[in-house]
Design brief:
single chain
Length: about 120
Amino acid sequence: MKEELKALKDPKDPKHQTYREQAGDMSGFDSENYQMHLKEFEKNFPPAASQLIRNRLQAFLHLTQDINFNAALIEKNGKKVFADPKLEAKDALWKRCFRAGPETINAARKFAQEWLASLKMN
């Protein structure tokens, strides 16, 4: 990168023109695609930190709202898996919350709800 930057700054450098052309090549640029990705990025990472925190707290509460900590587990290939295929198909984050247990998740949910309520007041 340092070599490229040096060449770009020096018009007498033999690679100067090549790097300028590469830097200026926008053939892969698609304004519509860029706008779509920008909207998705702004949705996932809003400019206000409080909105990002609010989004993450709501996502956690949604993820953990219906965990059945009494769900049946069976052993398969030396590993415990859910007897219910729908639960076994859940993502790794949901399964980590399940393994954390009801005491941990209930305490975290209470904390998240209180934090979310405080954000709404502000």
